[in-house]
């Protein structure tokens, strides 16, 4: 694989927000040697993510059903996810998890879909990409019981104790645009205390756009702004931050 400087480990390139200029957005990332893992949130977007990955060398896909869409998860969906995952460009099961903030699917369905997809990932020897919002108690209980073999807590939000709990479970912490938000001193404080080798960089494009583009559409090329902020906070060079690319490669086997 060629020399990628950074990998945006969490983007939604299939989003309709890119329908007008998706190829341009992708080209901007590639021109800066930035690879992308684009993640699905339901069956259709997982298939779209895989198609994007199949066509481009520096794009890989996560397939899965997001907690918002958990009500759509069933045996047929799981079978299709399994079929997608047979493709070598699928490097993770995700985005999966729990979201008790928006509660767009019943919580019991969220838990069931999450557990089934952890089991699927473990069976297929794939990492999981985990979404957790205001659901930490159940999240930890499920992770302790069903132990994903490997994975990342996408857009980690919480204090240092929670960061340590996730790290003790062997998980990476995904760090993105919120690190640059003015109000987010807690996240900056956590970042300053956790080792670089437990961090993955991400954007969650088209959401969570970093400063100074906050309020506009996000895109994978902006992962460099996250890298710059990590470097500033940890008082290291951007080249040092780029060592997280190697950890992303190890986690996702790319
Ligand atoms: Ni996401």
Structure write-up:
With 254 residues, the chain is of the alpha/beta class. It has a single domain, classed as Metal-dependent hydrolases (TIM Barrel, Alpha-Beta Barrel), CATH 3.20.20.140. Helices cover 42% and strands 17% of the residues. It contains ten helices and eight strands. Strands 1-2-3-4-5-6-7-8 form an eight-stranded parallel sheet, with helices on both faces. Strand 5, helix 5 and strand 6 form a beta-alpha-beta unit. Helix 2 runs parallel beside helix 3. The chain binds nickel (II) ion. The site of nickel (II) ion has 5 residues, from loops.
Separation, N- and C-terminal Cα atoms: 8 Å
How many structural domains can be distinguished in the coordinates?
Answer: 1
The H-level CATH homologous superfamily, spelled out, is Metal-dependent hydrolases
Shape: globular
- Mean pLDDT across every amino acid position: 97
Structural class by sheet pairing and helices: alpha/beta
Level-1 CATH class name = Alpha Beta
How large is the count of helical segments? 10
Written as H for each helix and E for each strand, in order along the chain, the element string is EHEHEHEHEHEHEHEHHH
Gross CATH architecture: Alpha-Beta Barrel
